[in-house]
Queue: 2 jobs
Job 1
Amino acid sequence: MSKNVVFLINKSEITAGTRGASLGPDAIMTAARKKGSYIFGENEVQKILNVNNFLDKPTQFPFAKRIDGLLNVYNELNTKVSEILNNQSFPILLAADHGSAGGTIAGIKSAFPQKRLGVVWIDAHADIHTPYTTPSGNMHGMPLATALNIDNLECKTNEVDEETVSFWNQLKQVGNITPKVKPEDIVYIGVRDTEAQENAIMDRLDIKNCQVSEVRSKGVSEIIKIVDERLKDCDIIYVSFDVDSMDPDLTSHGTGTPVDDGLTPQEAREILIALAKNPKTICIEVVEVNPCLDEKENTMAEITLDIVEAITQTIKT
């Protein structure tokens, strides 16, 4: 059944270690205008206020950089995403960096508190660090930990101050439901750049990772079968797509943390179309396009636009 699509634009880039992802949503829109695509004129576009002013002063939280600003983003996404879903629309989020994805998940659970949520995380990175384990302090490496309500103290490497702990616990509690997702209801696709602390908790929680080699050897249709089987007991599904899941040699380096040996753009497109066809899928997020880092003149945004167009057409068909 055809669904009404709402694009939700989030330009806050406070959780990444590089600058420029705040321009990512506009770069995708610019690619659409260059192509003559009217995707953003034919569908409703909403925006949330960005908090990039937090980048204009030093952060007080070395193990959770700008977590105070991120709490604002989580709360606003919780309100906006739940509102769009309650209006029977399908939100496609175009976000600067990946750190805000926990707020999107909060909004989904606020709209459907009784439904079991599955998450498909298409990314080069696991994003399951916590302030206690992070080597960088960049919070785009932590959104899944907030959704899972975990600290991973078993792998603790950092002594975290009380104020950071307070903000961290507030993040996990946004939407007043915690945990928001179970580890068995998460499937990674393309994750290939992780730290030891992440590997330990992924193993301990038995989170499935469909590696690029598996996508290549089995084909997209078999990967989708694995996802369907893994999430068969879930009522609804959220898909989070980081463009660094794709191989930079086949796209560009127009993303904050590119990693070699990724998905091809065609594989990513096929995976996302298949997931968009799943009637359980109710929200898709696209993140980490950074035109400031693109050595090929907005190529990453153009490739991403092609994927977003395909997703949108699939949802509306």
Job 2
Amino acid sequence: MSASDGRIAMTGANGFVGRAVSRALLARGIAATGLVRRGSACEPGVDARYIDGLDAIAPEAFEGCDAVIHLAARVHVMRDAAAQTQSASRAQAVLEAYRETNVDGALATAEAARRAGVTRFVLMSSIKALGESDPGRPFTEDDERRPPDAYGVSKAEAEVRLLEFGSRTGMEVVVVRPPLVYGPGVRANFLAMMNAIARGLPLPLGAIDARRSLVSVDNLASAAIECARNPAAAGRVFHVTDGEDPSVAGLARKLGEHLGKPARLVSVPAGVLRGAARLAGKTAQIERLTGSLRVDSSRIRDTLGWRAPQSLDQGLAATAAWYRSTRGR
């Protein structure tokens, strides 16, 4: 039985995850409202409501909605990570910029939704609220928060503040923590890996056996909707993954299969890669490739009965098909 069969609102509805959530809602016949900035477009069929910013949302924006999936956020970018190493004042400025959107903006959104009578608020957080690499075993939802950077700090603080907000006001807050999200339309490092494989470039990943959890954007959308509707989700934190933890080298090989271009993997010891990365100022990028980041997502399956609609292989196949279609192949 669902907590709500009514309309679900989304912030960030025009983003990578927001569009996937929109499509999933519409496919299930659930009325969807998208809160976006003026000039932005939602998926066809989504009721677009325009806002000037998270701190300026009026309760009227949530009229007729029973739940909110909060996706809008300042996302992690490498130039912010680099800026944090330049000076204490610059690092603090970066942190405050993340807090303004990811903490204060999330709380303002939740308060506006509460005043409109919304009963369920789903925060899309990140595994970075816990850390950049696992503690020798898969992360669980009960592990201590040790965020590695300003983005992770802001997500960890948002989780704490929103769960406290829910306890204080009675709003049912749910926190969703995904690891790396991929799928059609993906950008950043995942897209860069596909570009390199498709061009036949050698990748120094053959000796990297670190395992990392992933989640396809369609699986994440499915889980977010379940968290917005299932009564058992109230007040809980859930990890969401595809249920498989491929090695970095294995992931590259599987992508190569689906792209029709076998990945050219060169075996370079992880220590050599890290040393070269330090010299080139690319330590953060290489750490993401050489360190394990495994995530235990059994709680959402056991508590909510949720099952990933896509396997890892199906998700990678869909992503590769999108990549090939956008490049005229």
